[in-house]
Amino acid sequence: MHVLDERLWFPPVDEADADGMLAIGGDLQLERLILAYSSGIFPWFVEQVPLWWCPDPRFVLFPEKLLIGRRLQKLMTKQEFVVTQNECFEIVIAQCAHVRRPGQESTWITNDMQKAFVELHKAGYAHSFEAWQNGVLVGGLYGVWLGGMFCGESMFSLVPNASKMAFLHAVQRLAAQGVALIDCQVHTEFLASFGAEMIPRKTFIKLLQQLITPD
Predict the structure, then answer these.
(1) Which of 12, 86, 135, 170 counts the highest number of beta carbons within 10 A?
(2) Hey, which CATH number is domain 59-212, 3.40.630.70, 3.60.21.10, 1.20.120.430, 3.40.640.10?
(3) Is the pTM of this model over 0.85?
């Protein structure tokens, strides 16, 4: 297991363990986070200690393979929810941290993580999508946008279907703006229902390099 210090570096991703954990420690400075996501690495926290991950295989969604069931298509047509982008990033990440999920006793979105991603947002790398119902924020998601890839981090929903609408609109809008791959990181049934799939880490890293490297 690699232990990071103040130096700005990460070990090769193929040195991650069987669960995908690559390194421990370091900090959440803007430069380190940009290097991490540009390398296919993302942070999770355990008891205030940053852990860095790059699992194999990787769970991703190709926007052109997005699945929208009939019920959700009807819901989108009804326009019960209004979805915006970057209207209230700090509130979205705070809600993602506070909403309790089954089987989860605490959140990995610590105060330090929130502060770091707010700085990423101010620098133009982190983005949020918000779902509103009757003028009230009821759902949303946030992630890191690098070139042609969006790395989804977390989402929340206060009413049924709010996070689904935020996600569907986000994928469609990101695709319209040149995003060719949504990094979902690890498998969830929720995202699998929308067409997300597993691909080898080696394939993911190759796509990442192609999508974030300017021509």
Answers:
(1) 170
(2) 3.40.630.70
(3) yes
